[in-house]
Fold Phospholipid-transporting ATPase.
Amino acid sequence: VFRAGMYRVLLVQCAGEENWVDSRTIYIGHKEPPPGTEAFIQQRFPDNRIVSSKYTFWNFIPKNLFEQFRRVANFYFLIIFLVQLIIDTPTSPITSGLPLFFVITVTAIKQGYEDWLRHKADNAVNRCPVHVVQHGKIVRKQSRKLRVGDVVLVKEDESFPCDLVLLSTSRDDGTCYVTTASLDGESSHKTYYAVQDTKAYNTEKEVDAIHATIECEQPQPDLYKFVGRINVYMGNESVARPLGSENLLLRGATLKNTSYIYAVAIYSGMETKMALNYQSKSQKRSAVEKSMNAYLLVYLCILISKAIINTALKYVWQADPNRDEPWYNHRTETERQRHLIRAFTDFLAFMVLFNYIIPVSMYVTVEMQKFLGSYFIMWDDEMMDEELGERAVVNTSDLNEELGQVEYVFTDKTGTLTENNMEFIECCVDGHVYVPQVICNGQVTDTTKEGWEREELFFRALCLCHTVQVKEEETVDGIKHGIHQGKSTSFYISSSPDEVALVEGMKRLGFTYLRLKDGQMEILNREDEIEKFELLEVLTFDSVRRRMSVIVKANTGELYLFCKGADSSIFPRVVSGKVDQIRARVEQNAVEGLRTLCVAYRHLSPEQYEEVCHLLSDAKLALQDRDRRLAEAYDLIEKDLILLGATAVEDRLQEKAADTIESLHKAGMKVWVLTGDKMETAAATCYASKLFRRSTQILELTTKRTEEQSLHDVLFDLSRTVLRHFSGDCTDYGLIIDGATLSAVMRPNQDDLNSGNYKEIFLEICRNCSAVLCCRMAPLQKAQIVKLIKASKEHPITLAVGDGANDVSMILEAHVGIGIMGKEGRQAVRNSDYAVPKFKHLKKMLLVHGHYYYIRISELVQYFFYKNVCFIFPQFLYQFFCGFSQQPLYDTAYLTLYNISFTSLPILLYSLIEQHINMDILKKDPTLYRDISKNSLLRWPIFIYWTILGVYDAIVMFFGAYFLFDNTTFTSNGQMFGNWTFGTLVFTVLVFTVTFKLALDTHYWTWINHFVIWGSLIFFVVFSLLWGGIIWPFLNYQRMYYVFMQMLSSGPAWLSIILLITASLLPDVLKKVIWRSLWPTTTERIQVSGETKTPATATRVSRRDANCADV
């Protein structure tokens, strides 16, 4: 179906099914195809303008307001403000309008400034000059004016202006080197290939003469996937060539070590893969935020209840004619009739009067606390890696407090627990072991001709079967490589550290890989002779096959397929070779924690090679299901292999990884290792990192065991074993499960009648194990495990940590995702909530920063609700003494500034710098983390206690002031106190009480605390003196004139303020003293004895709280 201006849609028949596949056709240089080949329909594509901004000058105000009022709290206060404007309410609209206006304005200014920066960055990118080939000449134009189909010239160290298909390069072999650091963080040089039929065109005129069209898929965000084909017209004939990700240069990547390239634009502007990856990740919400929202609902119900009670009591009060309006303001009979509308307006008026019980400023304070608090992680010098020069990174500050609530830690192994710094240890050829330091330079253990030939074939296989690039001495990204004792030498670069280790290992054993030039791979053998092999095909590695292959042609004309991969993917495809000896060596190396690979080969006849070429060509030219068809082709090609041998590479454990895992265990967290490695290798790493101890009883849930017993029986056996845990058995259990068995547990056979509760049994087993190792895991299975634990009945808080692209799915799935700045690129870092240079930094991030964040924000939330109950409950009580007339107790200025100025800064500062225990003690005694687990400081009993405390303080303030001045309401000059003086007295006691309450809760005092806490009280006094001591010309009433000074001139007022503050704070102080004496927590014990007790003694005390059931 063709339509001008729209995309082209192809109908493709595949596997008996009809599928509509979107594709686009690009005409290179905007040239029409030759007559009779295909219809020329010029399609419209977006320009190359990048728009990362959210707003324009015209839509900023309405769009920003719409987004802000989607928040429930903002919308609620807007409704209250409108009610105050529409009906006659007891308080001025300013009291709710000003705080709301302040919050909305500050947020709008912040978002507007951020968007202005985005506009500025967009303009810089969109106006960047690019070079385009037009009519055989180079034309300079702005990047935003680039169109799909334009042929672009890019020079060395320039970034690609859009997504391009490579046509030709300055190199004879049609390759170019690219770094994609800005896209995925990988700084290694990747090789890209020009189209075979256009790579010879190296000048503007030659490139302009290219006559071709490109058919490719519509834009999609996967950086590593591209499917297309190019039709090159030569006369009336056309040649079709496949296009894949190796031909696609992505916007934002940079050209390196290549003088220039010519390429054609295929995706532009917001359709480039970089732009399609702009969209933000799904929003994660912390447990504290959920508790906060639940508390808000409770307080909303309290607010509505108060309004209903007061409305009802008002009409009960007015039912008595003697209590109706005063004699000079009697109402008519019509007015006396109780209309529902009047009752509703009274209800709304009471809602307005009491609405301050829900604090709008709490949202702003929490946002500021999270944003400013996140800098403490980034500024922490102990979490900086000198070698990398990297600090911890905070990608989202919304989850700071969640770091203090983690119950399950899911970690990758390679690059996370280990250094991902590979060192070649040994290789095994036909059962004979070769160690570079011991046996090299031709000294071998097998002297037979056949053994010699197979050994050399093994070494050649490892020198040829890889994607390593060779660099001569040169500067790469500002760092000089290849200088050794004044001589220029080569060095290896690869996206996989394993491959570099293997090639360097072969170099130490006498076979040196030199280069790939003009399709020829060159090797220097032991006799210093250069051998050349023509590289015909590369069957790339993928995580599903877990192997890679190359097809090469020797000078003798012989065709070889060399294959290397995991033992589980090679052994089933082997038909001959010394399998038993090599398998035994592989298993022995795996037990020692070494990474193993197996190497195999097969001879190909010319006929077999033709068949292979046909299979691969058909799969590569497919526009639909190309990945599946390639996988099927690889499966058919990589068979009937002859096993040559195996390799062993060591990946050392990261510094302090074992100490970190041990600390996490003591803190009550369960650590799971999720890895793609084989079981023996992963288990050895787990023992080395102290995840498993020698006393740990290992339970296996693996394919090997399920082959001997049914899955049902194995699960129930393990379940019975761990249930002894509850009968006084303190055995420490560890579980090992592999990917295949996990799939069976997650998606059991439908015919199995007992399969329904497999997940529950599996979860029950896992709950009773201190550590779990999941090996042979696919990336998606890692996410499934995390999701399974998240959805279990306890709903524990999960944390996932990893360093590679294969860890991204579990990082996104977990409540908190942490990326390690490792050697497998920066995809994990880009997709994480937090990033740290090394695994060891996880200890301080959780045990110190997480602990502090949770303590601080839980106090902030509880304190905000407490001080607002203290603030508004006297107003509720006052209605019983003013005939439910909606008369406010406090002045408008006090209502407005209570949450904005008088009580906001002390709690904000507390929530930023409070340290209830010294951080050194938190690091040395991880069991203190248990005191705050499971959201313990925001549970309902504690919330109710704070609310009752607020109600008690409000009653003391109100009735204390009422009874103290019931008969002595005279100043020294005989004047009586009025209602504003009474309200000011209550408000003064209120401000001092809630501020002193926070001071009593503060453990970590600095000059800033003193300045803010006492400064806030001084500000209140100064403001009250000014507000009541000056005639304000812009106010039409002066009801507060001289009120505050008159109150302070009374001796009884001073006495009552001191008495009421003491009476309000006394119960909370007594409760703390009694509780700390009788039922102290571990934290409170440390606080009491922390100064006199050594950390070691403190640790012994705290461990009494940790029994074996917790572990």
